[in-house]
Please model this.
Amino acid sequence: MIDHGQSAASFISLRGADLRYSSYDVLVVGGGIAGLTAASGAAHRWNVGLITKGTLDQTTTFLAQGGIAAAMSPHDSPELHLNDTLEAGAGLCDDEAVRVLVEEGPARLLELERLGTRFDKRDGKLILGKEGAHSMARVVHAGGDATGSVVASALAEVITVGGRVELHENEFVVDLLMDAGRCVGALSLGEQGELTVSLARSVVLACGGAGQVFAHTTNPLMATGDGHAMAYRAGAVMRDMEFMQFHPTAFYGAENPTLLVTEALRGEGAYLRDDSGERFMVGSHPREELAPRDVVVRHIRRILDRDKTGHVWLDARHLDAQFLQERFPTVYSGLKKRGYDLCEELIPVAPASHYFIGGVLTDTWGRTSVPGLYACGETASTGIHGANRLASNSLLEGLVFGERTVRELNRYLAVADPAVRKVKLDLADEPREGNDPTVVTEGRVTVGETMSDLCGVVRNRDDLEKARQTLDVLQASLAAPGLNVAELELFNLLTVAQHMVVAAARREESRGVHLRSDFPERDDVDWRRHSLIHRDPMTDEVVVGTGAPKG
Ligand code: SIN
Model:
């Protein structure tokens, strides 16, 4: 945090750096569905800048396959969607936030259609897909399994055409700017190493998740928990950092990221089989392959441990080949490139980190615990996912809470202090050289392998302690970061990994995506509560606590 008049040391040194300046009412960080929604909405009234570390087609949103869950069918209702979300969430959802999500979701989808998004339809009616733990088909999709890219392209066009939003791609936000406890902008690093101080009356963090904390992930390379880490440095309260959702069926291979093999395939009838060909979900859960995602992952883990193999098999061979190619063009061609024919062959799949439930604590209006700082989408913890996210609720979350953040900004900016004109940068004494690039590359591998091996699908006290020590040793071995993206990402990954480990060690129960082999039962007496983390501003230490028990 680059702070005005505070004692915390600068995260980086700016001494001698050439600074540029910009000024906005609203600065949005992140170009996925939540960031695009917030930026396009806020631009109706305010001067808006959007900074994204890559390009708009490199976000996690762009890769999303399954679709957007919403009660759009006459047989469905927000109440049914609410019940499914609460049941999947394993007792830890925030009921009010879920109600907001399911009630406002359908209107947001209709808006997306008005913006030009062409959802898949037959005879003029939406074709609805089914996914795990949904009591009925309610997943709206586009381009078959290309929902994310279709939706993101439509929203990107809104913000780029007409130039209502000042867009900065390939710009990495290094840290938030603070003034007397209020967030007043961000410092960013451009492609040529140039630094920009963006002063802003409000900042919206919509930086996506942190799947790259693990060695195997469906998330793009840029999902390095930057929003989580910078919010934490700025003093924001973080919630439920132990909850990383693993997707049951990522293509089994060494690529980073790995190809998602969408749950919608199981929704259309694909099976999961073990090495002997047995459908191991039959008899394991009444919904078989469409059990809640955490349940499917646990059973896959059981099979992998039993059979000492690295993957199970997804079987779609019994489904119509033409249908598969039309409904799942992304998966079909992605598998073809990797040497597999979805229509004719078994596909090797294994769990991979997919969605970070933990995040910056917000209310249902995107407000964090830091004045002037907002968060939405995967960066935020609104409480809608509880301890296990219902499939296809995340694009919906970005739409609903991105839009609500705009409504709150309209209220806040109407009364907040006028434009921020200056901020004092607290410079470190020496220009920093940072770390050797090889050390940085190796550090990233260490974080990923440590987290996958010791804090993955199944955790226990001893492993978590080993993970804590390994991460601490890594941190101690690193010099303060220099001004380059790879290094800054490593520090963000490390921060998020440390938070995951400390929160996972503290939660002595198994709930949703958090499975402890040493505490295999769910404990509603002691643990039906959120975990909370913040930075002690005096000591710079991580403070871990819990929220009030849920009624
Ligand atoms: C999928 O397509 O399987 C992913 C959907 C989601 O994560 O919500």
